[in-house]
Amino acid sequence: MRWKAGLGACLIVAGVVASGNGRRPAAVQVPTATAGTAVIEGRVAIPPRKRAPLPHYPNQPQQPGPPEPPKAAVYLEGTFPPGPTPRRVALGQRDLQFNPGLLIIQRGTPVDFPNQDDLYHNVFSYSKTKRFDLGRYRKDEKPPVITFDRVGIVRLACEIHEHMEGVILVVDTPYFQKTDADGAYRLEGLPAGRFVLKAWVSEKLVYERPVVLTPGATLRVDFPSS
Amino acid sequence: MRTGLVVLALSLIVPVRAWAQGVTLGGPDDAVQMDITAVLDFEGYDVSSPPPGLVYGDGGTAFNPRLRLHAGTRLGPRVSAFVQLRADRGFDPLQAERDFRADEYYLRLSVAKGGQLTLVAGKSATVVGSWVARHYSWENPFVNAPLPYENVTIMWDRWSPSSPDEFLGYLQQPDRKADMLPMIWGPAYTTGLSAFGTAGRWDYGVEVKNAGLSSRPADWDVSENLWRRPTVSGRAGFRPTSAWNIGLSLSRGHYLTGDPSQTLLSGARLGDFHQTTIGQDISYAHGHLQLWSEVFWSQFDVQRVGQVQTSSYYVEGKYKLTPQLFVAARWGQQFFSDVSGAPWDGPASRAEVAVGYRFSRRLQVKAQYGRTSEDRPVAQGPRLAALQITIRL
Fold first, then answer.
1. pLDDT tens across B228-239, in order?
2. Is the pLDDT higher at B72 or at B18?
3. Number of other residues whose CB lies within 10 A of the CB of residue B375
4. Are A152 and A129 in contact (CB under 8 A)?
């Protein structure tokens, strides 16, 4: 796709700086709808988060490992032709943490919650977007697959291990990506047109910017804008 | 109590800015971290007269608000301090008195990083049994404790009978319930040293505390009896799978308190009279179902009466009907050995049901109804209905 990007002309909307700095982006989310040739890359400023100290659980040999570093989710909102049914993804529990701690999925995506620890977990959510409780299950058990059919935030927790917290961000677009720990992202294969680019950092902090994409163009969008 | 205030002060020096979440003060290598949680319980009771269990007074209805504050301070990688403060009406919701106390305060040292050995010094819940690990209002499916932890017998701790007949005569004195003891007094927040840890599928806990399992809250603080009644307890647990947890507990200590000069034979001491307890617990959990059961046998040395025994068990189950709605049921019984050809207390049985709903991770409502049956001349009333609203701040 990169060779196509080199052929396209760049048209930038107001407030958006177009540039290609050559930095290696985070892993690319392959869109499932009609693929285009536009690219958006940039960086999201992720404020440091204070976390409570990890607890020590008596009477169990395994203790919590460090959680995933804070990351953001970037996604392109607009009107897209219907694509294929989203593929099943997994959100595990490893070292007494949700892995990944932040998952961004398209609406309608089925999610597995495999237990990768040698003790019980009990994943549940009281979020309005999706309420469920998988009960207690072992490493070798397969809990029910949950399909997330509403857009919004799903806060995950484990009934046994209070410190475990995870988030699923359900979006209504096939174009999304989670940043790396530095906030860098790169969305490829985007269609041309007018859209809104959003960066979800937390429930209280969501950036958004209107963008116009043209075939083969690479757009740089940082949040917040400098 | 003084010790508790000192530890409390140590814990609260740090966290002035730390109410809602952990706070790190100092450099990353010597971080001092504080974690505070506050829990509000609003409880309503409707009980028979005389009320069953650790509820006193004349029965009727009562409202009992409670503020519980947990403050944990990490003083480095291996040392932490913990305080649990409560403001309520004490253990008896029918009392119209305000009570503010430190139920737990201790220092904890993690000797082995993998959790094989942790030492605790201070006032903390007993290691005996399995209910203590889930006795807080958020984790307990019921409002009260299982039968072995709160059914009051005729065992007195401030008075020794002059004969077996006088001992059995306590059965006729319902208004003296406040002078009597259960087999195990709730979580038994006694003071002393504890060690616990985990090794593979095994876990253990041992403690040397200042009072017996049945001792009343007034005796739990170290300043109350100055180690005149040491009690040694322990529990060994085994988890054959993630679903099962099996434990065996032992405890031997002392239960008498107060001034012995008026009641004990010449030359006898409070420490001459023991309470010995053996307990076995088993629990199972899978999916939305959780089951617990414990059985205890306890023997008391009673002056001029000899050794008397009691045994008690309960079976409890909880099932989540939906992510937020759960139901629970519990059945328990208690039996007593013979003194002068008859049981020294009336056999008791109790059936309880509860329903709970968690609106969020911070708000839970539970309702409970239980009926107790006792075969004794002056029986405790049968009914206990309770409603509890828990808010985690």
1. 778 999 999 999
2. B72
3. 12
4. yes
Least Cα separation, residue B33 to chain A (angstroms): 7
Q: Give yes or no for B37 touching A (CB within 8 A).
A: no
Q: Specify the DSSP class assigned to residue B378.
A: S
CB hemisphere CA count around B381 (13 angstroms): 17
Where are the domains positioned within chain B?
A: 2-392
The structural domains of chain A, ordered by start, are 2-46+63-220 (2.60.40.420)
Using CA atoms in the order A110, A116, A122, A126, what is the torsion angle rounded to 10 degrees?
A: -40
Q: Is B4 helix (H, G, I), strand (E, B) or coil?
A: helix
For B266, residues 6+ apart whose C-beta sits below 8 A from its C-beta are none
Which superfamily does B2-392 belong to? Answer: Porin (2.40.160.10)
List Cβ neighbours of A4 (8 Å cut-off, separation of 6 or more).
A37, A215, A216
CA distances from A175 to A21, A190, A206, B148 (A): 22, 7, 17, 59
For testing contact with chain A, the best of B138, B361, B363, B364 (most A CBs within 10 A) = B361
The values of phi and psi at residue A99, to 5°, are -135, 100
- Could you read off the pLDDT of B218-227 as tens digits, one per residue? 889 877 666 7
